[in-house]
Amino acid sequence: MNNVDLAIIGGGAAGLAAALSAVDDALRIVLIEKDRQLGGILNQCIHHGFGLHQFKEELTGPEYADRFIQSLSKQGVSIMFETTVLDIQKKEDFELMISSPKHGYEHLHARAVILASGCYERTRGAAIIPGTRPKGIMPAGSAQRYLNMEGYLVGKRIFILGSGDIGLIMARRMTLEGAQVLGVAEIMPYSNGLTRNIVQCLHDFDIPLYLSHTVTHVKGKEVLEQITIQEVDQSMNPIAGTEKVFDVDTLLLSIGLIPDVALFDGLPMKKSPTTRSAYVDQHLMTNIDGLFVCGNALHVHDLVDWVSDEGKKAGQWAKRYLLSPSHAVKDLKPILLGHYVRYVVPHHIDMNDCTEPITLSFRITKKMTAAYIKVIQDDQVIAQRKSAYLAPAEMESMIIQPHQLISKNPIQLIVEDIV
Amino acid sequence: MFDYIIVGSGIIGSMIARELSRYDVSIMVFDKENDFASHQTTANSAIIHSGHDPKEHTLKARLCVEGNKLYEKLEQELDIPLLRTGAYVVAHGEEEEKLLQILYDRAQANGVHNIQMITPEELRQEEPRLISTITKALSLPSTKVTYPWEVAFAALENAVKNGASIRRNSHVITIEKDHNNFKMTLDDGTVWLTRHIINAAGVMSDRIASMIEDDVEFVIHPRRGEYLVLDHRAKDAFHHVIYPLPTAKGKGVLIVPQVHGNILLGPTSELVSDPEDASTTMEGIRYIKEQLRMLSDAIPYEWTIRAFAGVRATSSYDDFYIQESKTYPGFYHVAGIDSPGLTAAPAIAKYLVEEVINIRASKKASFDPYRQKRTLFHQLSEEDKYRLAKENPLYGNIICKCERITEQEIIDAIKGPLGNDTIKGIKKRARAGSGLCQGGYCEHQVLNIIARETKKPKSSINYDGQHTPILVKETKTHE
Predict the structure, then answer these.
(1) A 384-403 residues with CB below 8 A of B?
(2) Please, which residues bridge with residue B29 across strands?
C-alpha cells in the first residue's frame, strides 16, 4: 500500500482518537506506529486517573488505550507497526519516507497527514545543569519505562528536579518499589504538576517539595554521588548560602515536555516559539494544506482526555478536508493574547469557515484564585465565563459558538484576575 | 614480552599504535578506562587547524601543518569524516588588525598556504550571522573539522588489523627497570614486560613518567575547557570555524560547525587541580556566551542539547614534549599534547617513530593501511537504502530516530573490531542518543540490544565505566 488518503503518524492517545474519528468507507487510512503495539506512552503509565472525562471512570494508562484500540480493531484502518517515519515532503501530495524491519525502506504517498507524534522530555543538556556527567541522571519518563515496562529500578536514593507530572508520579512509584525519594525541586515559585499529583504523590508520602529551588551542582565521576540544590531569586539566579546537599544515586528530570515535531524539518513550516510546534487554525491544520497536528505534538496537555478530544477533532477535520473540502478562500485572523495568557491553540481562525464551535485551549502565566476569561471582538465581549481557580500547570479551554462571532475581525482572549 | 607498550589510547596513543604497526614489532596498548579514547579525545573542539597559531619553529607549528595534510590521506585510508569548513580569524578595529597581521605572517612562516585577508563585506557574504563590528578577517581555507574519537577508534582498529594488541581497564600502577626491559604492573595484578614504553597518557602523563623517573622535565597543568553543543537543526547558522584573536590562555571561545551538523561553542580555559575534573560550571557557560557576543549576536542557543567539558594536558614545557627519557632509554614521553594535538596527532606519531625512536625494525609488507568502510544508513542514496533494508531487516529498524541510526549500526558498534558493550560506548561509535532527545527515546532499546547481542543480563549493562549499571534492582523477580 503505497498510496493512501490519510496517514496518521503515531498510535498513542492522539493518533488513536484521530484514526477512529476519520474512519470512512470512502477513505484509505493508515496509522503508523513505531512500536510493536498501539497506545504510546500510555503503556508505561500504569497508575490510574485516566479517562475521568472520556469515560467517567478512573482507568490506568493501558486500560485507557485499550478502549480506543478495541474500538479501532472493528474499523478498516490499516496499522503499520514497528514503522518509523523518517521524513515528510510536500509535492503534489505528501511523500513519507518510512522504514520498518518487515517492509524495509519505502515511500508512502498520502493526500493528507495527521501528525500525532507526541512529545519528548526536556534533557539535562537543554537545561544546562552544572557539574560532572556520571551515570544516574535521566528523564523521569525513561525511569518510568525501565520500571514499568522492563521491571527495574534505576536507583535507590532519588532526587527529582522539576515538578512536572511524570516526576511526581515517579516519586510515588519509586517509593512504593522501595526506593527512597529525598525531595523534589522546582525552579518556579509554583508547582508545574496537577494539584492532585502534588497531594497524592508527594504529601501522602512526606516527600518535600522545594519551590524556587534548582540543582546547581552534580558530583560523582562514574556514578552520581551527590547533588546540591539552591534557592533562586526572582530572576532565577541561585542565592548564595541556601545550598542543600543530598547524597543520591539518581537524579530524575521532570523539567518539561517538548512537542516532537522533527518531521517538520523537510517542510516550510511556520512554528510558534512558545509551543515549539506548528501554528494551526481552528481545524488543527497547519500552514501546509492537508497537514494536521494534534495532541502533545501540537502543545503539551496535562490530561490524556484532552489529547483524545483534540485527536478526535483532527480526525474529523481531516476527513472533511478529504471528502468535502471547503473551497472558500481562507481569511486567517490571529487570536490576540491578553495579559497572563501564555499561548492559545488554535493560533488563528479562518473567518470564512466558521460553521462549528471553536475550542480555544490555553495556558496562563500566573496562579489566580478567581478570574474572568473573556473573548473580545470589535471591542465587545462576545463570550465569557468565570473561573474559580487558574494555574499555569493546568490547561484551560473556552468554547466559542459560531453565532457569537460578530464580524470577521480578529478576536482577543483575555484573563482578568479578580482581586 | 612486547616490543612496545603504549600507555593511553587517546588520539595520540592510537596514532602511534598504527604508525608502529607498519613495522615488524609487537605492540600493546593499555587504557585504564572501560573504553578507549575516553578523555581529552572525546572532549575537544574537533578542529584540524591550519597551523596559523603556534609560534614559528616550534614542534607545534611543524607537526600541526604536517598533520593537517596527513588528514587528507587518513580520510581515504581510515574512512573518517572530514568537513572542509575553512576558518576565519576575526579582528575588531585597528589594534586587533595589527595582531591579525602578526598571525598572517606567522601562518606564512609556518607554511600554511592560500591564506588571505578579507574585508568585513566579504566575510558577511559567507557568514551573515557574524557581528557587524568585525573590521577584518584572516581566511584559512585548510582548516577542517573531524569526529575526534572516531579518528582514534579508526587508527586503533587499523593497528589491531595490523597485529597490535589492545587492552581496556588496564591501569598502570608501577613501572620498573628489569635488566634490559621494563616491567609494568597493572591494578588487576597482571605484570607485563616490554622493551620500550610510550607514555601517551595525556593528563596523566607526568604521573606515568614519575613512576620511574626522578626528574621529570614536564609537569601537567590540567586546563579545563567547557563547551555547549547545538543540535544539527542549527546547522545552517555557521559554515566556517570562527576564531577570535588568540590570547595568552589559548585560542579563545570559538564557533565550530561539526561533521554531523551540530555547532560547537567553546571552550573556556581554566586551570584545575584534578586532571579528570571535567565538570561544567555556571560561570563557564556564562563566559562562553559572553565571549561569543564579540563574534555574533545571532547564535541559535534555543537548539542547545548538551554542555560538556574536557581537560587538556597543557604542560610546563613550552611546546609538545616528545622525547626519550634521559635516564631510561627506551622510555618515550609524548606529553603536553594540548591544542593543536588532534591536528598534529598523525604527524606526532610519524615524528616519534621515525625521528625520536629512529626505528630500525623492518617495514611489514603485509601492512594494510585501510580500515573497512562502515555503512551509515542515513547517508546512503534512496536506492541503496531501499535495497539494503530489503536485504537486511535490521537496517529497516530505526533505533535512534533523532540521528536516524538503525539496529544493524548498533550491532556493528557492539560486535565490530573495536566493539563495546556500554551505552556510552555505543553512543560514541554509532551516535545513538546524540540528538535532540539525548537518548530519551532509544536508550532502553540500545540497552536491550546490547544484552541480547552479548548474552548478558540487562542488569549488567553499564552506562560507561565497569560499575555503572543503568538498572540497579529488579522489582518482580521469580521466586
Answers:
(1) none
(2) B6, B166
Q: Rounded CA gap, B326 and A228, in Å?
A: 48
Whole-angstrom distance, CA of residue A133 vs CA of residue A405? 55
Q: Which of A89, A148, A150, A261 to mutate to probe the B interface, most B CBs <10 Å?
A: A150
Catalytic residue, from B39, B49, B221, B240: name it: B49
Distance from CA of B276 to the nearest CA of A (A): 9
Partner residue facing B304 (CB), from A100, A101, A128? A128
By C-alpha distance, the chain A residue nearest B399 is A84
Q: Residue for cell digits 570562527?
A: B242
Task: Compute CA distances A268 → A12, A88, A110, B129, B233, whole Å.
Answer: 26, 11, 18, 21, 14
Reduce the DSSP state of residue A410 to 3 states and report it.
coil
Q: Which residue of A has its CA nearest to B476?
A: A151
Residues 370-399 in B contacting A (C-alpha not used; CB under 8 Å): 378, 385-386, 388-390, 393-398
B49: annotated active-site residue: yes
Interface of A with B in 201-220 (CB under 8 A): 216, 218
**Model confidence over A276-325: pLDDT tens digits?**
999 999 999 999 999 999 999 999 999 999 999 999 999 999 999 999 98
Using the Cβ of A121 and the Cβ atoms of chain B, whether some distance falls under 8 Å is answered with: yes
List, in sequence order, every residue forming a beta bridge with B226; answer none if it has no partner: B309
Q: What is the mean pLDDT of chain B?
A: 96
Which regions in chain A score pLDDT beneath 70? 1
Domain spanning A1-121+257-325: which superfamily? FAD/NAD(P)-binding domain (3.50.50.60)
Which chain B residues in 286-345 lie under 8 Å from chain A, judged by CB atoms? 302, 304-308
ipTM here? 0.95
The architecture in CATH of the region A123-255 reads: 3-Layer(bba) Sandwich (3.50)
**How many degrees, rounded to 5, is the angle at CA A102 between CA A99 and CA A108?**
40
Domains of chain B, CATH where assigned: 1-81+146-218+317-373 (3.50.50.60), 87-141+221-312 (3.30.9.10), 377-460 (1.10.10)
- Substitution target from A222, A255, A277 for chain B, most B beta carbons within 10 A: A222
Domain A329-419 sits in CATH 2.60.120: no
- The three grid cell numbers given for residue A360, joined into one nine-digit string: 480555544
Q: Do B397 and A82 touch (CB under 8 A)?
A: yes
* pLDDT tens for each residue of B99-154: 999 999 999 999 999 999 999 999 999 999 999 999 999 999 999 999 999 999 99
Name the minimum distance, in Å, from the CA of A376 to any CA of chain B.
Answer: 33
Between strands A396-400 and B116-118, the pairing is unpaired
Residue spans in chain A of domains classed CATH 2.60.40: 329-419
What does the pLDDT read at residue A328? 84
- pLDDT tens figures, B227-253: 999 999 999 999 999 999 987 777 799
pTM of the predicted structure, to 2 decimals: 0.94
Which residues of chain A are in CATH 3.50.50.60 domains?
1-121+257-325, 123-255
Residues written for chain A: 419
CB contact under 8 A, A151 and B285: no
